[in-house]
Specification:
CATH superfamily of the largest domain: Periplasmic binding protein-like II
Number of domains: 2
Shape: globular
Distance between the termini: 78 Å
CATH class of the largest domain: Alpha Beta
Helix content: 40-55%
Largest sheet: 5 strands, mixed
Number of strands: 10
Strand content: 5-15%
Oligomer: single chain
CATH architecture of the largest domain: 3-Layer(aba) Sandwich
Mean pLDDT: 93
Low-confidence stretches: 1-29
Length: 431
């Protein structure tokens, strides 16, 4: 009888192990981690190294890719229903306010994830909720800050220009304009504007806005997009830069902008790292890859230049029962040797020593500019779950101003009023 009981227990133990049900949700030969990832270049590095983790750790990585809008919608639904669908998620940094406010993510600190001096402080800050700087949404001020996400795509908006046509890099936006006016000619834009409606034009404009001393909100959530400084930035984009830009900038998105520079039809513009890897530095697309240089954002009248963060982070959903195993994967993804392989295979790293590695920099000419941009503490978009609505309002009116259907002053006055009304309706102390 005793031997029979031992056999039954042994069989039960084998079944449990085969199902991956291990004590504490840790790793093990039978563990599978399911990751929700964005479809596109941002997940290329993750997919390039997943097999290494499976080989070295015996943990199966299952990556489910979804297009950007569908990924966000799927995550919101999954979190609302508290489903253990995913063990890890890729999230764009503007999603942090929504998921942080809702308590949808696990605190990474409990799994031993701490700040590393080889990784820029802002990378940890952008994954912390409530945010350690800037305005904090109503009701979130009293929460204890927690690290909820770790960057795996060090995405900061930078600046690119044709270094074969200019001896020195533009230090200020005044330099940008002067160079654009000098280089602008038929079939060759002095400056390429990413002006498509809503998110595209806002992403292109915010670094200019911040460098001029303007912003969308102040520290108390008051709308200041119609302030004197903000209006100066709007006029600089709509009047000065548009005068030396490509035809129909109001219809230009990121891929269009980078392609124009890559094929020799544009002199300079802002750029995201993913555009560099996928377009500007791609020999099958670009005829100018050897002639394009990358720098942090130029300074404006404020005396500073501000890149904009678009980091993609890894977080652990609250409902996941494999927290430690998921955290172990995050630790592995961010360690130096993994980051080097990740970079070699097309990933966009965040570790300073990898970004400043001379050998890696030869194949990735934007790495140094990205490292400098991270060290300069780039700005993030306002940390509010209402940002999508705000961005849609602002981006619709900015696009109309570029298209010439609204005057700049009228466009910003209308945007400011609509944003105030929206934020007040959501309980913000907006004036």
């Amino acid at each position: 009888m005793r031997n029979t009981r031992l056999v039954v227990l042994a069989i039960a133990a084998l079944v449990v192990a085969a199902c991956g049900i291990l004590p504490g949700g840790g790793g093990g030969a039978a563990t599978t981690l399911t990751i929700a990832a964005v479809q596109g270049g941002e997940s290329a590095g993750l997919k390039a190294v997943e097999g290494d983790y499976e080989t070295s750790k015996g943990v199966t990585i299952n990556i489910e890719e979804l297009p950007y809008p569908q990924l966000y919608e799927k995550l919101v639904t999954t979190f609302e229903q508290n489903q253990a669908t995913y063990d890890l998620i890729m999230m764009d940094d503007p999603w942090m306010p929504k998921f942080g406010t809702d308590g949808s993510l696990q605190d990474l600190g409990q799994f031993g994830i701490t700040r590393d001096p080889d990784i820029a402080e802002v990378i940890y800050d952008v994954g912390t909720w409530p945010p350690p700087r800037g305005a904090v949404p109503p009701g979130e001020e009293s929460k204890t800050p927690q690290l909820l996400g770790i960057t795996i795509v060090g995405n900061v908006e930078m600046f690119m220009y044709r270094s074969d046509l200019t001896e020195t890099a533009p230090a200020t936006w005044d330099d940008v304009l002067a160079n654009a006016q000098e280089q602008d000619k038929e079939g060759f834009a002095g400056y390429v504007i990413r002006g498509a409606a809503t998110n595209p034009v806002v992403a292109d404009f915010l670094p200019i806005l911040w460098s001029f001393g303007g912003d969308v909100f102040d520290e108390n959530w008051n709308v200041v997009i119609d302030s004197e400084e903000s209006m100066a930035a709007v006029n600089f984009l709509v009047n000065d830069l548009k005068a030396v830009a490509q035809e129909d900038p109001a219809s230009t998105d990121a891929a269009d902008r980078s392609r124009l520079v890559a094929i020799g039809e544009g002199y300079q513009s802002t750029v995201w790292p993913g555009e560099v890897t996928d377009i500007v530095n791609d020999p099958e697309v670009s005829t100018q890859r050897e002639n394009i240089a990358y720098i942090p954002m130029p300074a404006g009248p404020s005396g500073q230049g501000f890149g904009m963060m678009g980091n993609w982070l890894l977080g652990i959903p609250k409902a996941s029962t494999k927290g430690q195993a998921a955290a172990d994967f995050i630790k592995w993804m961010t360690q130096a040797d993994t980051q080097k392989v990740y970079a070699e295979r097309g990933g966009i790293p965040s570790r300073t020593s990898i970004l400043t590695d001379a050998t890696l920099g030869e194949a990735n000419p934007y790495f140094q500019a990205l490292s400098d941009s991270l060290a300069a503490t780039p700005n993030w978009r306002p940390r509010t779950a209402e940002w999508n609505a705000v961005e849609t309002i602002l981006g619709t009116h900015l696009n109309a101003a570029l298209a010439g259907t609204e005057e700049p002053e009228a466009a910003m006055a209308a945007a400011a009023e609509e944003i105030r009304t929206h934020m007040q309706g959501q309980g913000y102390p907006t004036e």
